[in-house]
Amino acid sequence: MNDDEIQFEYYEYVSPYNVLVVSSDGEIFELNCPFEVKAKVNFPDIKANDLVWVHKVQTTNENKDVFIIGEEAYSVKYFHVIV
After folding, report:
1. One pLDDT digit (tens) per residue for the chain, 83 residues
2. CA 41 to CA 80: how far, in whole Å?
3. Phi then psi dihedrals of residue 7, to 5 deg
4. Which structural domain, as residue segments, surrounds residue 46?
5. pTM higher than 0.90, yes or no?
6. Long-range contacts of 22-28 (CB under 8 A, 24+ apart)
7. d(CA 36, CA 10)
8. What CA–CA distance (Å, rounded) separates 21 from 82?
């Protein structure tokens, strides 16, 4: 299987408009955009503990997940998903 086939197969199962979240008690939830997240750290336009809305979820060229909030992409590791 070449890289193009793998990419096609991957995108067959994912969407930029929803995510699967595992809760602290092990339940799996599907969240559709927009969904709310809470910032863990300060950014120029977002302060720690601010609640903001994710409008899209994307993957970088390095296969790292990012949330699209407003016009900017932010690493998912800097946010708590609100379930």
Report:
1. 555 555 555 556 678 999 888 888 999 988 999 999 999 999 999 999 999 999 999 988 888 999 999 999 999 999 999 87
2. 11
3. -60, -45
4. 3-81
5. no
6. 23/83
7. 25
8. 10
